């Protein structure tokens, strides 16, 4: 048995039947990380010693017959944008290189309440701005399917760590596709919940009206299990919504006969790689086989959404990132002769290129004289996009699109061309703009052996349906049983 | 042209700290005067990842202020971010309200030397206060204290309806009194919990309004009046000399009595206001507003009316007493305890008001309580002390408040009402002043006053004046 290849629900069974101890699990992952991390570079901070201590404590609890959570001892990786009390939380920025959060994010409190064990903090694009994780101040994470390729972004560390079996699952955040796109290019499952389902308290803000915490897992069942843990209203986040107790595992294995899947033709047109398109069309056929009704329709929002996304997200970011001023915490410039220089030099030194680009863009669109033309207009388009989705959901239960227009691209391929990089989000941003749930699951490999992902978009707070539809496909196609990352050294 | 040919136009933006127990977006205490950075948490220190949660009391208090100033309450309102960099502003934006304030279109009535006048209120909105910079005596430079960061404020913006420093002062006093009455702010100007930005412009009568200047963060009536007078005159001088007024932010310097332009910070800033995505819209129901309306306490106008009818106070006296909720409460409470509200009123109108004026003290800072004032009144009524000793007791109450009974015992101020003792003094004074006795007997009544005065001197003011009078007359008849 290869412990690190197991899903969480499989690990739970082995723990229950006492085939495995928690220490064995943590040791297996420690070993795997020692082996693979030098190649993948998914972690910013490792917590392995601490993890082992926690593991043996939990094993003692089990030995003493104490009651523990059904997820106690399950390892997890945390995107380094989520505040963890007493542990460095960097957001992959020089600005927060030595920042130790004085409190736990609400999602961390939930993870800790389950007595899960964090193995470390995962790499990402600085302040979650990017689609390749190349904008991290610390390191460039590699794609386990091809080490010369990017793992996607911004939650590239989370996706690569799960794909490389260095953690059984991980938390990430998704503002414009930052969970679904890396999940797609790393061949795993990634879910971005409805805006408001998961608390944002303690999650370092990039774009407040779009950010949402979500999960990376090896299969859809694990996705439902982890969503059960992190979902729920939080008094500390007034944008979080109380939808009552839900058990997302209840929808697993349910029949999807007669379920209506909409396929928006604009998401299969120009700019979408041919192999990706073919793979998606094959998925459509699979769905038909298992009884779903699939219909093509028009949803002309992708380009509008992308423009809207970069206006709104940059506007919010320009304000959200103002607090990194060198006064209370974070990087402070050594050289300054007045207050203005203290601000200017600290921020110039502490932020990377992409972050600066988006702050400048955001500052511009909020400036007096430009506000109406950009920010206000973008908000109007946002309403329009939401309305178009609402229209579509009158007819369809889920919408099926590619997750990413291409499979993983090469490291360095797009890092000098921001506009091309921004196009990586073309299929995912509209979901954030409308605040909907979206899941990406693997649906094939391209000719280079790189995974292709498909995205299922659901109605607001209808995670059940997309999980059910994703699970039905997974059961039918068994991607994970057929394909594994090869860790090949690319050219 | 002379100054009389000009009209002065004044508008005020008043910031009042709300007296909620906790801050506007977190549960930190709002108490004044704590050691630096002891009333802070990750939220008001703007730690990464933190989110604001709007304190419902803040909305309630602002709605109260709106209703008490005859404003319309907006059913749909929201919070906006005002972005700028400053070390006392931890998030680098202030959460405020931009285009949808909670209250709009109100007014309050003021009494001026030319009768009553309505001053329009443009809007009232809620926002958070910033922290404070303290000079670092040891290391040089500045240190940031964030205790005040996130303390709730309302900003009350008036229409440019005031035409003199006097009207501006009346408006501010009235506003302060209303806020005190409805108990949403303690309005302690010396602690900065009530401060005003003053906008002043001048124009020739009959012409359009002139360009305005703004003086920021004024926190005493005296300086506001002085600053308005100075600034209006300065503007007139500039115009008379053929110059133009530039719209700018000024700093009032109390020592020189002049205004100076402020440096870059406030001028020509683009705050890049936009709706705060971390907070949901504020939606108020009719029932909610109705409930607050019904729970509003009695306002100064209605109290004043009641005093005229119930206690037959003069218009002027009723106005003085109701000018401050604290004075008015003192009046009613001490009146009830002493069962002599008339006497309590007299103390407030005369000696207490005089001392407050002389020491520039706000009524809320009166150190003694209603019970102590009532006791003073009762001691006089019982004849334990006379009213001139009473004044000394009052001064003592301001100095070091304690029971008046204790004060007079300690100071030995108990009135001499013993007939034998009084007689002894009277005889002594008569013997020493034969001329006055002769004058009195010759029909000069003033001599009696002189003799009583001498006896008072002799007893250090403690003798019962009525008894002295009576006994002098009796003795001199003999």
Helix and strand layout, with pairings?
The complex is a heterodimer of chains A (491) and B (478).
Chain A: H1 8-16, H2 22-40, E1 43-46, H3 48-63, E2 75-79, H4 106-113, E3 117-122, H5 156-163, E4 169-174, H6 180-186, E5 189-192, E6 212-217, H7 220-230, E7 260-264, H8 274-289, E8 293-297, H9 302-320, H10 339-350, H11 353-366, H12 372-395, E9 398-402, H13 418-422, H14 429-433, E10 438-445, E11 451-457, H15 463-477, H16 479-482
Parallel strand pairs in A: 2-3, 2-4, 7-8, 7-9
Antiparallel strand pairs in A: 1-3, 4-6, 5-6, 5-10, 9-11, 10-11
Helix pairs in contact in A: 2-3, 7-15, 9-11, 9-12
Chain B: E1 6-17, H1 56-68, E2 72-73, E3 76-77, E4 80-83, E5 93-96, E6 103-112, E7 115-128, E8 132-135, E9 142-145, E10 152-158, H2 165-181, E11 194-204, E12 213-218, H3 221-240, E13 249-253, E14 258-261, E15 274-275, E16 282-283, H4 286-295, H5 300-310, H6 315-322, H7 325-338, H8 341-358, H9 370-381, H10 387-399, H11 404-411, H12 419-432, H13 434-441, H14 446-458, H15 465-477
Main features:
heterodimer, A: 491 residues, alpha/beta, Amidase signature (AS) enzymes, 12% strand, globular, B: 478 residues, alpha+beta, Arc Repressor Mutant, subunit A, 16 strands
């Amino acid at each position: 048995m290869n412990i690190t290849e197991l899903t969480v629900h499989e690990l739970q069974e082995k723990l229950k039947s006492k085939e495995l101890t928690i220490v064995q699990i943590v040791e297996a992952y420690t070993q795997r990380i020692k082996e693979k991390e030098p190649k993948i570079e998914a972690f910013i901070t490792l917590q392995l010693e601490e993890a082992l201590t926690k593991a043996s404590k939990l094993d003692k609890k089990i030995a003493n017959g104490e009651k523990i959570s059904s997820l106690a001892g399950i390892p997890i990786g945390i995107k380094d944008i989520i505040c963890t009390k007493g542990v460095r939380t960097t957001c992959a920025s020089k600005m927060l290189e030595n920042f130790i959060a004085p409190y736990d994010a609400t999602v961390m409190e939930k993870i800790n309440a389950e007595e899960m064990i964090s193995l470390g903090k995962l790499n990402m694009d600085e302040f979650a701005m990017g689609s390749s994780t190349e904008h991290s101040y610390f390191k460039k994470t590699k794609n386990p399917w091809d080490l010369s390729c990017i793992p996607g972004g911004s939650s590239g560390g989370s996706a690569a760590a799960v794909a490389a079996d260095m953690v059984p699952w991980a938390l990430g955040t998704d503002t414009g596709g930052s969970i679904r796109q890396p999940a797609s290019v790393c061949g795993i499952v990634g879910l971005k919940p409805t805006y408001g389902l998961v608390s944002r308290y303690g999650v370092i803000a990039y774009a407040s009206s779009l950010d949402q915490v979500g999960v990376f897992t090896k299969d859809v069942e694990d996705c439902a299990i982890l969503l059960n843990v992190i979902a729920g209203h939080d008094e500390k986040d007034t944008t979080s919504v109380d939808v009552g107790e839900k058990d997302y595992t209840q929808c697993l294995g349910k029949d999807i006969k007669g379920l209506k899947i909409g396929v928006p033709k604009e998401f299969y047109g120009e700019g979408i790689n041919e192999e990706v398109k073919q793979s998606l069309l094959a998925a459509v056929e699979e769905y038909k086989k298992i009884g779903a009704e699939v219909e093509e329709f028009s949803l002309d929002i992708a380009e509008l959404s992308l423009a809207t996304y970069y206006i709104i997200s940059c506007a919010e970011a320009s304000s959200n990132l103002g607090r990194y001023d060198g006064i209370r915490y974070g990087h402070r410039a050594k050289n300054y002769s007045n207050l203005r220089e203290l601000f200017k030099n600290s921020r110039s030194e502490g932020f990377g290129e992409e972050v600066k680009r988006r702050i400048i863009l955001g500052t511009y669109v909020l400036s007096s004289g430009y506000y109406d033309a950009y920010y206000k207009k973008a908000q109007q388009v946002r309403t329009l996009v939401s309305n178009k989705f609402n229209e579509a959901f009158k007819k369809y239960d889920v919408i099926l699109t590619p997750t990413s227009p291409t499979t993983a691209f090469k490291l360095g391929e797009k890092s000098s061309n921001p506009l091309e990089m921004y196009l990586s989000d073309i299929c995912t941003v509209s979901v954030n703009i409308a605040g909907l749930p979206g899941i990406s699951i693997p649906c094939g490999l391209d000719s280079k052996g790189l995974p292709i992902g498909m995205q299922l978009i659901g109605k607001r707070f209808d995670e059940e349906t997309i999980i059910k539809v994703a699970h039905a496909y997974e059961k039918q196609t068994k991607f994970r049983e057929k394909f594994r990352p090869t860790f090949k050294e690319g050219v | 042209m002379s100054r009389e040919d000009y009209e002065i136009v004044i508008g005020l933006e008043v910031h009042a700290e709300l007296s909620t127990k906790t801050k506007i977006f977190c549960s930190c205490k709002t108490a004044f005067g704590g050691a630096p950075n002891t009333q802070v948490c990750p939220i008001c220190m703007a730690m990464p990842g933190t989110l604001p949660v709007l304190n419902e009391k803040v909305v309630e208090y602002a709605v109260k202020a709106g209703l008490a100033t005859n404003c319309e309450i907006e059913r749909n309102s929201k919070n906006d971010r005002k972005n700028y960099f400053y070390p006392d502003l931890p998030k680098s934006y202030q959460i405020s309200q931009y285009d949808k304030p909670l209250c709009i279109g109100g007014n309050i009535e003021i009494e001026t030397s030319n009768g009553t006048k309505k001053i329009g209120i443009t809007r009232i909105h809620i926002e958070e206060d910033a922290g404070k910079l303290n000079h670092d005596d040891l290391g040089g430079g500045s240190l940031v204290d964030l205790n005040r960061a996130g303390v709730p404020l309302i900003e009350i913006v008036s229409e440019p309806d005031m035409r003199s420093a006097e009207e501006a002062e009346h408006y501010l006093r009235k506003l302060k009194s209303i806020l005190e009455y409805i108990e949403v702010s303690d309005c302690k100007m010396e602690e900065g919990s009530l401060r005003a930005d003053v906008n002043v412009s001048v124009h020739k009568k009959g012409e359009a309004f002139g360009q305005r200047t703004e003086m920021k963060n004024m926190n005493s009536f005296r300086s506001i009046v002085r600053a308005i007078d100075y600034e209006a005159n300065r503007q007139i001088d500039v115009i008379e000399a053929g110059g133009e007024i530039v719209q700018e932010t000024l700093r009032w310097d109390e020592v020189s009595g002049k205004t100076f332009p402020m440096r870059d910070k406030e001028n020509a800033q683009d705050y890049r206001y936009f709706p705060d995505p971390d907070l949901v819209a504020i939606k108020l129901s009719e029932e909610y507003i109705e409930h607050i309306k019904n729970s509003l306490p009695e306002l100064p106008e209605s109290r004043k009316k009641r005093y005229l009818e119930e206690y037959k106070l003069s218009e002027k006296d009723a106005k003085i007493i109701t000018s401050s909720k604290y004075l008015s409460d003192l009046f009613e409470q001490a009146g009830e305890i002493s069962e002599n509200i008339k006497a309590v009123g007299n103390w407030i109108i005369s000696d207490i008001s005089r001392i407050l004026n002389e020491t520039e003290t706000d009524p809320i800072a009166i150190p003694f309580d209603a019970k102590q004032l009532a006791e003073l009144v009762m001691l006089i009524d019982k004849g334990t002390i006379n009213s001139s000793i009473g004044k000394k007791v009052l001064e003592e109450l301001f100095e070091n408040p304690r029971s008046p009974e204790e004060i007079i015992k300690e100071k030995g101020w108990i009135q001499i009402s013993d007939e034998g003792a009084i007689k002894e003094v009277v005889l002594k004074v008569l013997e020493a002043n034969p001329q006055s006795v002769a004058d009195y007997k010759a029909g000069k009544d003033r001599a009696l006053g002189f003799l009583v005065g001498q006896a008072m001197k002799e007893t250090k003011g403690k003798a019962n004046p009525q008894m002295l009078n009576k006994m002098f007359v009796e003795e001199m008849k003999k």
